[in-house]
Design goal:
The chain contains 12 helices and 9 strands. With 384 residues, the chain is mostly helical. The chain is globular and about 55 Å long. The structure holds glycine.
Length: 384
């Protein structure tokens, strides 16, 4: 299969990425002044991030950006603020504030595992392990999946897994590595296998969500929550799948995860518009639908992971596609340093049907843009 993406002109691309760092750091500094020790909300509203306490699924993306900025610059102010976040995440898990979610992986990997990786902090490690225990409570051994949302006794949510959860699995794999307790990794690996079996369709598109019977373990049905239709392919879900299966591969070494991520990428790439930045649902190619720049940034990280795992002769086109998308994001979607508003990456869609974060910056789009920038400009050990 060929993809219609040529690699960017490398000296110019490199210069764009260097300029992008200056923009990113200037805008992060403005957001730092705005939020203090609190957090940007999930998405901007009318171009600005409302300021929130440590609730919801996205606060770790702000911590993650601070750690990346610290690793880029060595500026102790980023580290000091991110270390305050570790205390906040400790309180959150001990008091179980808004923790009935699989998103503990997103939250604690980018706040506490990142803190431990960068500084060796034993308290950050301990807090991340508490979060891994809480995430493990959501694993149903009968269904072999981690329940995505809601209380475990909520009949509407019981047995429901979603493709996004692939990014929550690294916290579990990491916890097994740290403790020698195999329960975490077994749950993660089992969930990844069920996701591969049921969330991925035969043509390598993905369901957003899929229900399992938690008594018999039988598959029930797939549907969407944020996509265009139950049988369409929500762009961010496909991007979560590409990156997420690659992160499972990092821990398991199982080449089936690489093969699957590659099939997902082969579905994703031919369904992009000319500039390589996906519409919010891949079924909407050719319709003028809004873009989801956050899905594009996640896909860049996934494609770079995939390219690094493949033999050179097969890796090039995925690496080129990642650079092409990143060039578009940098030139046409990244906010200017002095642009009014907060946030980095414009034109994301959080949840169109709920009218949430439509054509706005969002905290995960910003985070994955900076992660992609880091991957392309530095030698970096992922926090995942
Ligand atoms: N994980 C939620 C989302 O991607 O919107």
């Amino acid at each position: 299969m060929t993809f219609p993406f040529t690699p960017p002109d490398h000296p110019r691309f490199a210069a764009h990425l260097e300029q992008a760092w200056a923009t990113v750091l200037a805008r992060l500094d403005a957001t730092r002044l705005l939020v203090g020790e609190r957090f940007p909300a999930e998405t901007c509203a009318n171009g600005h991030y409302p300021v929130r306490d440590n609730v919801e699924w996205t606060t770790g993306f702000w911590s993650g950006q601070l750690w990346l900025a610290y690793q880029r610059t060595g500026n102790p102010a980023y580290r000091a603020l991110a270390e305050r976040h570790v205390i906040s995440f400790g309180q959150r898990i001990v008091q179980r504030i808004d923790t009935a979610t699989h998103d503990l992986g997103f939250l604690y990997t980018l706040s506490c595992v990142a803190a431990w990786r960068v500084t060796g902090s034993p308290s950050a490690r301990g807090i991340a392990l508490l979060a891994a225990e809480a995430l493990l409570e959501r694993f149903s051994p009968q269904a072999g999946i981690i329940q995505a949302w809601g209380d475990l006794d909520d009949p509407a949510q019981r047995g429901r897994m979603i493709i996004d959860c692939n990014l929550n699995l690294p916290l579990l794999y990491w916890a097994s590595q740290q403790t020698g307790d195999g329960r975490f990794a077994t749950a993660a690996r089992t969930h990844a296998e069920q996701a591969a079996r049921y969330l991925v369709r035969p043509d390598a598109s993905t369901f957003h969500t899929f229900y399992m019977d938690t008594e018999s373990g039988a598959p029930r049905f797939g549907n969407t929550h944020q996509g265009y239709a139950d049988d369409s392919c929500w762009a961010r879900g496909q991007a979560w799948g590409i990156l997420g299966f690659m992160l499972s591969w990092r821990y398991t070494g199982d080449s089936q995860h690489v093969a699957l991520a590659r099939r997902l990428a082969d579905y994703f790439l031919p369904r992009l518009p000319e500039d390589g930045v996906c519409h919010w649902d891949l079924a909407l190619l050719g319709t003028g639908a809004l873009r989801d720049s956050s899905a594009a940034a996640i896909a860049v990280c996934g494609l770079l992971e995939l390219a690094a795992a493949l033999p050179p002769a097969e890796a090039g086109r995925y690496h080129d596609a990642a650079c092409f998308i990143m060039q578009s994001l940098t030139v046409d979607y990244l906010s200017a340093p002095d642009e009014v508003g907060s946030g980095l990456l414009k034109h994301a869609v959080y949840h169109l049907a709920d009218n949430k974060g439509v054509d706005e910056c969002c905290s995960w789009g910003d985070y994955f843009y900076v992660e992609a920038l880091t991957r392309l400009t530095q030698v970096w050990q992922p926090y995942w």
